[in-house]
Amino acid sequence: xxxxxxxxGQVEIGQDDLDVLNALDGELEAAIEAGEEEAFRERLHALxxxxxxxxxxxxxxxxASSELILPPADASMDEVREMLGDxxxxxx
Length: 92
Description:
Elements: E1 2-5, E2 9-12, H1 18-34, H2 37-54, E3 56-57, E4 68-70, H3 77-83
Parallel strand pairs: 1-4
Antiparallel strand pairs: 1-2, 2-3
């Protein structure tokens, strides 16, 4: 799966890593629903850090289309709330 972190570029994520990312996504969604800003910020950074860690960076000139777009680390809770789908930021 090709993932773009807004403002950073694209990485390729293996199918095996999606369960961990979905768990972090669920925690992020729960923090948003509870309106807990500090927990939201921690969960967003944890999710993005994990994507960076498990993902293989694609070259800047790659033309691969992103299957998933994640917000930047400095996104507000409202901005992330608008990006949430029925299954959070990461479907599955």
